[in-house]
Amino acid sequence: MEDCQFPTTINIPLVQIKSQNNVADFFYIRGIVHYEFVPTGQTVNRVYYLEVLETLREKVRRKRPKLFANNSWILYHDNAPAHMALSVREFLATKQITVLEHPAYSLDQASSDFFLFPKIKEILKGRYFNDIDDIRSNTTAALKAIPQNQFQNCFEGWTRRWHWCIASQGEYFEGDHSSIQQ
Fold first, then answer.
1. What architecture does CATH give domain 24-162?
2. According to the model, what pLDDT value does residue 105 have?
3. pTM (2 decimals)?
4. What confidence score (pLDDT) does residue 10 get?
C-alpha cells in the first residue's frame, strides 16, 4: 500500500490525535477512577498494561477502599491483545481481580468507544492545540467536565446491551432491539 501524500496547501491542525490510542481510562457509574496518557511512542503492550493495572489497583484502593477491601470491584476491558496476554491474566488472577469477559465481536459493549471517547471528542470538537501538553490538559478538563448522570446513563445503556447480547445468545443484531426478549 502506498503512503498517502497530502497537498501542501491544506491547513492541518498543529497536532492531531486519536484519543483512544493515547489515553488509558477506567471509570465506573459515578465517574473516572483513573486515567493516564500513553507516552508518545509507547505501544500498549502487556508490559505497559500491567503497569497501568498496578496503578489502577492502587487508585481503587484509595478511592473506593470498601470495594478494594472486600474485593468486590470488577474489571471490564475488551479483547485487545494486551488485555488478553497470559501475564495480564495471571496478574489479575493472582490479585483476585474479577474480570467480566468481553463478548467477541461486540464493539457496542466497549464503553470507552461508545461513550467516553465520543464525549471527549464532542467537548474538544473544532479546537486546535499547540502541542501534546495542550491536548492533555484539555482532554483532562473534558474528562472532568462529564457529569455523573452521564456515567450513570452509560452504565444503564451498557446493561441494556448486555441483556440484548444474552437474549440473542451472542448472535449478531443491530438497530431496534424490540424483537429481542429481555
1. 2-Layer Sandwich (3.30)
2. 56
3. 0.71
4. 39
Of the two residues 58 and 103, the one the predictor is more confident about is 58
Residue 59 β-bridge partners: none
In the numeric block, the cell 498517502 is attached to 4
In the chain, domain spans: 24-162
3-state secondary structure of 58: helix
- Cβ distance 24 to 52 under 8 Å? yes
Strands (E), the chain: 23-28, 31-37, 74-76, 98-100
Q: How many CA atoms lie within 13 A of 171 on its CB side?
A: 6
Q: Please, which residues bridge with residue 37 across strands?
A: 23
CB 44 within 8 A of CB 24: yes
- CB 168 within 8 Å of CB 180: yes
In the chain, % of residues over pLDDT 70: 74
Residue 79 phi/psi, 5° resolution? -95, 30
Taking Cα atoms as reference points, which of 17, 21, 7, 5 lies closest to residue 130?
Answer: 17
First to last CA, the chain: 46
Instruction: Decide if 22 contacts 37 (C-beta within 8 A).
Output: yes
DSSP string, 63-105: H-HHHHHTT--EEE----HHHH-HHHHHHHHHTT-EEEPPPTT
CA–CA distances in Å: residue 59 to residues 37, 73, 119, 134? 15, 12, 23, 25
